[in-house]
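Hey there, shall we discuss this one?
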Amino acid sequence: EVRLVESGGALVQPGGSLRLSCAASGFAFSSYAVNWVRQAPGKGLEWVSHINSGGSRTSYADSVKGRFTISRDNAKTMVYLQMNSLKPEDTAVYYCNALNYWGQGTQVTVSS
């Protein structure tokens, strides 16, 4: 069974940092790219970041470029999203996605 399980979401003040984690299992993790995607309240899905299978290539939405960093550890079948300088507009449920599979999401709330 393919599983993607996100964790690390929390309530944080503007300017703060969080690291999200995505634990993968049930498929050949190291062979596939992974995306982080978010959904803000009342809005559609927004792609945030992408990392290729080997971790050598990454890309980011303009809205998070320079503030977020995606990484992966294929030995641990984990993907991470380091989020710095958080803004209220980063408030969303964050999902990791690989192949056609999605996790349940983790809530990030940026508020004072």
Remarks:
- The radius of gyration is 13 Å.
- Residues 36 and 45 are 10 Å apart (CA to CA).
- The chain has a mean pLDDT of 97.
